Every structure is written in C-alpha cells, then in structure tokens.
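Lab notebook, bench 4. Continuing the backlog of folding jobs that were queued last week. Each job is logged with the same field layout so the records can be merged later without manual cleanup. Today's entry covers B30.2/SPRY domain-containing protein, a 778-residue chain. Filled in by technician R.K.

JOB TYPE: sequence-to-structure
TARGET: B30.2/SPRY domain-containing protein
LENGTH: 778
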Amino acid sequence: MPSFEASFRNLYLNQRVDSQSPLIARSEWMACMSQDTIADGEAIYLALDLSSTTDLTALVAVSAEPTADRALAWFWKPGDLLDDHETRDRAPYRRWAAEGHLEAPPGRAVDYGFVAQHKRSKLGATSPIFDNKVYFTSGDALYAFGLTSTALYRDPSAWYHIFWNGTGVYVNGTLVTGTGTYTAASVTNPRLGFDGTNYFSGYMSDFAFWNGSSASLQGGISDANGVWAARKAAAGYSFLGFGSSGALGTDTSGNGNTWTVNGSPVQTTDTPTNNYATWNPLKWLSSSGFSNGNLTFNGSSSWSDTTATIAPRSGKWYAEVTITSSTGANSLFLGVMAVSLCPFNSAPWQNQATTYAVWYQDGGKIWNNTGPGYSAGGYVQSGLATLTAGKVLGIALDLDGGTVQFYVNNVAQGTAVALPYSSTEWTFWTEQYTGYYGTANFGATAFAYTPPTGFKALCTANLPAVSIKKPSDHFNTVLAAGASIKSSSEALYTYFLEWIKDRANSQNHQLIDTVRGTSAVLQSNTTAAETTYSAPSGTSVGWVWNSGAAAVTNNAGSVTSQVSANPTSGFSIVTWTHTTSGNYTVGHGLGATPKLIVQKSRSTALNWDVYHPSLAAGNRLILNSPAAQGTGYWTGPPSSTTIPHLTTSANNNDLMVAYCFAEIPGYSKFGSYTGNASNDGPFVYCGFRPRFILVKDASVGNYWNIYDTARSVSNPASEHLFPNLSNSELTNNSFDILSNGFKARTTGGDINAADTYIFAAFAEHPFGGSNVAPCPAR
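JOB STATUS: finished
OUTPUT FIELD FOLLOWS
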C-alpha cells in the first residue's frame, strides 16, 4: 500500500451494490466513501467502485466538489500491484466511465475546458478553433458544441477571448446565446485550428486546456477602464504560450502534454496585449484576397484597394512590403492614405478632385493626386527604382512633420513628399491589379531593414497616450424602465445633457440639461418650445453627456453666454439671448473648434439647427426633419472660442441653447462616408469602439438614426431610433460596431444608399494607446 495507507482505514472493502449494473450510480457510490484531507488541505472522497463481481474494481480519490468533475492522483485497478498507481491528476469522471469504471455525474456536458485568444483574418469561411466542436461558421457566427450564436464575429482588427468551461462558451466574458443547445461532446486526439477539412485563418495566443470544468473566466478580466483585457490563463492540463518559434506546440504547464505541429504556423509578436496592424478586409474596393494573417494581398482580376487596420493622427511610423509577384504593368500602388477622407467606392487615382493619398508606383514614380491626376501623368517624382519580385518597399510616414519617404531595399527614393492634409488619420494603403502579390510587415516580425531613426512599428502599444482612458466618465448610455430612466440617467454625472426616448412606444424624444434646469424639456422630433418632462411608459434609453461644471458667464463672443463646459471631453452647453440686430457670435468654452453644433430656440416653435463640418459651407441640417442639407444658414464657421448664429434661427429676444462638441481622438469622431447600397457597406475608421453613433443622409431626405451598444450588445447592431420621429425602436437596418469603427451591413437608405452621410460617434473603449489596454474585437 502507499505510504498514506491510514487514509483508507474507514472503507468498507467488501461491500457490493447492484452487481447487475456495469456502472454504479453516483448516489450509491458516494455512500461507500469516507472523507479525508489530502495535499493543500483539499477535502476529497476516498471511495470504491464495487459494480462488478470483483470485490475491488477500483480504488479512487475524488474531489469533494460535486460538480467539479475532477479527481486527484491515486487510481488502482484489479490486477495492479497497489504500489503501481496511475497518476491521473484531475482526471474527469467521464474518462473513467469511458473505461467502464465510474458513471459520469448527471448534467455535465463535456469533461474538459479551454481558453484561448483569437484574431480573425479570413472572414466568411469556416474557421475551426477547437477541432470540429468550436469554430467560426461561413456566416461568421460562432458554433460551440451544438449551439450556433446569434451574434456574428467579423471584426478582424483585434482579438477575441474565447472560453469554454464545460457548460457554455464565452466571448470576451459574455456567455454566447443562439440557436440549438450545448450537447455532450468528447474529443479523442483533439486538434487546434483544424477540423479534418478546414484550417483556422488568423492568430492564436495563450491556449490553455484542462480536464474538468472551471468557474472562473480564465485568461481575461475587465480592467479599471472597463476594457476586457487579456491576462495569462492558469496552466491547466496543457498550456501553449507559443514562446518558441521552433516548437510552437510545446506545453509549458509542466505536465508534458506537448501538441504536434502541422503546416507552417509563424510566430509573431501580434498579441492580445499589443495588437499590430494588418491589411483591413473590411475596407476595400473590388475583390482583393488576403492571406498570411491579412498581411499578404493577392491581386485580383480587377482593381483592389485596402488600408491598414490602425490609423494614427500623429507620430512617425514605418512599414515594409515585400513584393512576391509583379507583372511590371505599372499597376501596383503602395503608399499612405488619409483614411477618414477616402470615399468608399472610389480609388485614389480615380478621384481627381481629392488629394487624400500619396503612393509609390511599381514603375518607379511617386503620385499624390495633385495636378492633372493619374490618367494625365500627374506624378510628382519619376525615374526611381522599379518594384519587382523580391524587392522590399519601405514606407516612412512622418505625421509630425507631414511627409512620407519611400525606400527600395533600404535606399531612399527621391525626396520626402508633403502630405496634402494634416490633423486627420493617415495609414498605409495598397492598390493593385491582377498578378501583383506582396506581404506587408507592420512590425509584428523583424523588419528586413532598420527603420529610420524615431520611426516605430504600427501597433496599439506605440500609439499616443489617449486623454480619456475611460469614456464612460464622460458619456454613457442607460437602459431602464420609463419610470426610472430620468433618475438613472441623472445619477451618472452632476452636470449633464440627457436625451431620453421610450423604446417601446411612440412618444417624443426629451432633451434635458442642467443649465436650462432639469424640469425643462426640448423635443428633438418637434419644433416645440420648452415644455415639461413626461415619464415614458415603456422600456427606455438615456444618452448622457457630462458637461463638467456649473454654468459660468462667457464673454468670448459679441453676445454674452452662459456655458457649462467639459473641455476634456469636448462638450459644452451654451445658453444666450438671441438678437436680430445683426450678425453675432457666442462663446462656447471648449478651447477647440466644435465639429458638431445642435441648437434650438427655447422660446419659439422653430426648427433645430445642426452644424457639421462635412456639410457645404454655411449649410445646415434640421434635427426634427429628414430633409437634406439646406444652403445659406450659418453666418460663418465656428472657431476655438465662439460659434456663429443662424440667420433664421430665432425671434428677437428668444432664449437659445446650443450643444457643442469638439473632436477628442480616441473618444469622439465627427465625419462623413459615402454609401454603396450594399450589405457589404463602407467601413468607417474612428480609432475607438463606438458606444453611440448618430447618422444622417446629407444628400436626400432620409431619417436621422441613433445606434448604441447598450441596446445592441452584439453584431449586427440593428436596434435604432429616429431623432426626428416619435416612433418606437426598429431593427430593420444594421451596422457592425467594431473595435476601431463601424461598417454598414444594409442596403437601407437611412444609412447606406449611394449618398453622402454625416455621423457623430462617441467611444465605449479607445482602440489603443500607450496608456490603455487594446480594445478587444466585437
């Protein structure tokens, strides 16, 4: 007997129960046990399986946790010498049952768990994670042990945390729900990233596998800023840290459960804690294909166009592209693009009126869309090195100095070219025709050549520090019953603007702020003057902005105003008295130029006026109307200190209010996009995961729309309300809300006709920055 023979002294060694059954019921089995304590003070059961005609079939030690499905180390079978034990640490009941020794306890689905981080690359194709039991479907849902998710997971710009604990699968800490039910499943010789037919396409990090279940969400936790952040999982039965490039299957748990590697996976420093750029399959023109973790582009039979997944506003950035195939037809372009300014359905050289890209052509020319344009030979430098197979094009993007310099095999080509725009996001860009192939390196593996001094790899940890690490300190969305939505919204901040809407019923929108007083209401869907609050009757939503401080007098404009301002988040509430005696300005208190102004007469039944920089100069939109932009309203643009008045905004001596928003990188974004009337709609880069999106067609008469991630907890995000209508919530049009922006997934005219749309977005999490964890994929 083993040295702790005394542990078994209370067992009834010759007691039999139901010898006709091959397996003993757990309740009967438990009756033939005694409780003792073993290593680390853990309570265990020492018990016998007496279900066969042999008195001593098995002698086992099992943990005291009735749902844990795990056992400790000692296990004896007839015929064994008692000193020759099998070490089956944490072996599950189901494994014993499969060998005919014990019955699995009821209610357990499987007898193992795992956790891993994944970053997708190829979308719209079956992509296995764990054998054929957990995989992304061809429709981008997640299948897990019999259940297919309602949510779609098609965000290739960041990492997903996927956890299976024996009863359910969790993505970024949230239990997956959908059609079907979780079913029992055992796997013999399990495979990672392969199901017998299909291979996983993307990145995998920190895979932990264990026998039994786990109550804790291994490998992730919400940090102080509310971001689901990666952390190392417990080693478990097997842990793959992928730390050795020559032995990626090596188990580092100490249990020696090393996996066999097939194919040619590549080690990279692109990880959940530092997310590197790749080519973005969500922002592309035509049918370019991607491989090698979205780093290799494969020229199609027509022009194909895409950008990188990270687009900074400042800093110095370096990338390389190794050419693997070239036809020499002057049809490969590699360079940089002002990503927020590029129309979705127009390649740079096809749009001669806009200068939003600078690129190197494989024939040895540099272009920047100035002058007569591509078709007329409007290049700015020529006679440079050609790009052929095997050559490496280096691109050094200096957003601080406003230039880009190209290198071929580490030799500078021509001179640095000035960027045509500043104060906007730029990133790396490619466009190519059939027969051109190349692989980008944004720094996740070693560069072929040393970058110029001061230039960095393009990854989230290298991005500038964000000024707002926790966006919910400045904006948030609240869901509550109608009776409590006002108090719940007002509990967030001391000084605020709150916008309340009944989701279930046709009732007016209600806007309330602490400058006018929390009993005074304006309605975004009507022209009405101030009225009083009426509690919604149904489930409601509140969108709330923190205005930072009590109102103070502001004399920056020609007319005195009262201003409650939060310069950190770029939001202020401004009130004043209108005069018709001439043009005037009022101070807004932000110290930065507003990108969105929404104003209204409080005294008279007149329209809501909306300023947005993407509208033509002087034009406005009307918040309470679906009408396209109208001309000749604003008397001038806003400045860093004042906003202009509108020529028809109010009557003399009317009380006025304006809500002013300046753009804060990583927190807010105000821009435009061009729709394409396709379910594969335009991708809009924000630099953060949006919490709130306001959209309006500026070209024709379509409705205003509001989306948020409180009502739409997964993609596609389809729940939307209409600021210009009292209607209840609808779900007929949708966006995908992503880690770095959003993408239209509908043909609906309200958000994706072949028109120009303006938008305002506020963050749930920054995409990245040197002082924050990377935002996970959604």
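OBSERVATION: The first helix runs from residue 26 to 31.
SIGNED: R.K.
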